[in-house]
Every structure is written in C-alpha cells, then in structure tokens.
Amino acid sequence: MRSIWRTLDRGLARDIGLVCLADCLVGVSYGAIAVSSGFPLWLPMLMSLLVFAGASQFMFVGIVAAGGNPFAAVLAGLLANARHLPFGFAVGDVLGRRWASRLAGSHLMIDESVAFALAQREAQRRRAAYWACGIGLFACWNLGVVAGAFAGTAISDTDVFGLDAAFPAVLLALVLPSLRDKAARLPVLIGVLVALATTPFLPAGLPVLLALAGVVAGVAAKEPEPQEAR
Length: 230
Description:
Radius of gyration: 19 Å
Number of domains: 2
C-alpha cells in the first residue's frame, strides 16, 4: 500500500483530493436528504458502506420518498450501475490477482476511480490512481453521509439550503461533456423524452426505468456508419 502513495505525484494527488472533497459535500447532502425525508438514521450510513454508489443511493431515496415501490427503486439502481460491467473489463488489471484484492477493488469501482485510472499511461500509475482515489472517496463519502445524516435530524426542510440540487448538479456536470459526441445525443434525447412523457402518468420510479430502456433502445437503433471503400 505504501508504494501506491509513493507513486502519486503532487498534481495527481491534488486532483484526487479535490474530487474527494467535492464527493464529501455531496455525501453530506445525501445523508441530510435521506434522514429529512423520513428514512431512519442508520439506513443512509448502511447503504453507503454496502452499496457505495451515489447515483443509485440518491435514486433509491428519491423514488421511495416520492411514494414509489422500493423494488422499483432497487431495480432502477441496478440498471444505473450496469455500467460497472464494462468498467470491470477496463480496469481489471489494476485490481490484482488475489481474490480479496479483486473483491475490495470491485467495491471501490466508481466513475471517478475508473476515470483517474484510465487517464494514466503507466500500469503502476494506473494502479496507484485507482486505489488512492477509491479509498479516498470511500472514506470521504461515508464521513460526509454520517455528517449529513445527523444534520438531517435537525433540518426539517432541506430545500431551504438547496441540498436537493447538489447531486443533480454533479450528474449534469458529468453528462454535459459527453453530449459533445454526436453518437451520444440520440440515446440521451430518447431517454429524456421518455421520462418527461411518462412522469405525469406513472408511479414514481417507473419513468426512470423506462428512460433507461429508452436509452438502450436509442443505442440499438443507431445505424453503423458506412465504411469507406478502399
């Protein structure tokens, strides 16, 4: 583990630290929103330890708090985390060979740790970036959730502080750069239209599932670009 920290340079360590700080603040908002929405104090903490996937955790709390079916909330979270399958293939080499290492590394497999790892060219730096980011984010996220959960017991309305907008803002910041790619616009547009069209008529949670299905359909409907004749 010591070699991992020695491999990081100041610039990379600084970038990881800033992301961890931002993630901690989002964790505070999640904990506060969950508890102020009526969930028991222990639930957001337990979910953060066992699930450790911000998007799915926010999705579960949002769907159930709006009156949606918990099973629909779980299914929505599983679909949202389906992206971890290609993540595993992309960073499988940094997890190590021992089953314990691969199990722990899989639990730390989130968007940020994968992004930092794939940005490195050398194998040793990839491994160091992945583990440093994953461990740092796991610690900061859970600390933030604990702080937010206790704060949520004293906050009757999180909307006053705008905490409910924190994670959607982060997700929007992550999505917008990908829309520069023309190939990504059609699936995203289909998903948005499906969600907007079905939200007034369906129970909470189902529009999210249908929107994800719309994204998949949009990807499948794309025709491959014709190859130039040689």
